[in-house]
Amino acid sequence: MTKEYLRLAGYKVLSFDKISSTQTYAHDMIAQGKASDRIAIVAAAQYAGRGRYRRKWVSHHGNLYVSFIFHCPERDPRLSYAVAVAIAETVISFGISPLIKWPNDILIDNAKVAGALIEYAGRFVIVGIGINVHTNPTVPEYKTTRLDKYNDIELTDLMSRLVKNLDRFINADFDLVRKRWMELAAGLNKLVKYRGEMVELIGVNDNGALVVRRGSEYLLIHGDEILM
Q1: What residues does each domain of the chain span?
Q2: Residue 10's pLDDT is what?
C-alpha cells in the first residue's frame, strides 16, 4: 500500500500498487461491513479489472484506476450522467477536448480514453473510473488513446481534479448536469445503431433515460448499448 493519495480532502483513501480490481475490493468492503461514505480505492494496476457487462478492463501501470464508495439509499440512473460529466470536465481542465459516448465513456478523437462502471451494493453505490494516462491498451472492439498524447499529466493532479468535479456534479441539479452532458454528447441529433436498427439520438429525459427516435416513434433507453 502506498501513501500517494492519502491527503485527499474529505475522503478515506486506500491506495495499492496492484490488486485484482478496485471495484471488487469495494464490494468486499461493503459485504464485510467495513464500508462508509466517501471512500476511494486506488490501484496503480489491476490484474482483473472489469468494465460494463463484465468486460475485461486492461489495467497496466501508468493510468488511474479508482473506485469510490458513496452512501446511496436508492438507485438513481441520473448518477451516470453526473459521473460522465465529471470525468469529461476533468479532461477539459487539462486543455483537452473530449466527447461523451452514452452513457459514460469518454472519447478523444473518436478513441476511448476513460470509462466508468456504476454498481449498487446494499445502501452504497460504487463508482469505478478508469482513465488512460500514460498507456492505452489495444483492444479489438474499439480504438483507445491516452491523455499524455495531448498534455503532460500527473496522476496525483488528475485524481485531485477528478474528485473536485465528482463532488461538484454529483451534488448538482440534474438540469445542469443534463445540459452539460448533451453539450458533450457524441452522436447527438445523429443516427446511431440500437438493437440492430438505426435511430436518431435525441437527448436525455428528466429521469435519466436516453431518448431516441425511430421514424415517428420515440424510445427510452435505460441500460442497452448504442453504436456510433
Answers
A1: 12-184, 191-221
A2: 87
Tally of CB atoms within 10 A around 197: 12
Amino acid 213 reads R
- Average pLDDT for consecutive 10-residue bins of the chain (228 residues)? 59 91 95 96 82 59 94 93 98 98 93 95 96 90 93 95 96 97 94 92 94 94 78
DSSP-based three-state secondary structure for 112: strand
Asked if residue 29 lies in contact with residue 40, where contact means CB atoms within 8 angstroms, the answer is no
Q: How high is the pLDDT of residue 68?
A: 97
Give the class (CATH, top level) of 12-184: alpha beta
Instruction: Starting at the earlier edge strand, list the strands of the sheet with 12-19.
Output: 12-19, 39-46, 64-71, 124-131, 111-121, 105-108, 99-101
**DSSP per residue over 52-102, as a string?**
GGG-B----TTSEEEEEEEE-SS--TTHHHHHHHHHHHHHHTTT---EEET
The C-alpha atoms of residue 73 and residue 81 are separated, in whole angstroms, by 18
| Residue 118 and residue 128 in contact, taking contact as beta carbons nearer than 8 Å | yes
Answer for the pair 60, 45: CB distance below 8 angstroms, yes or no.
yes
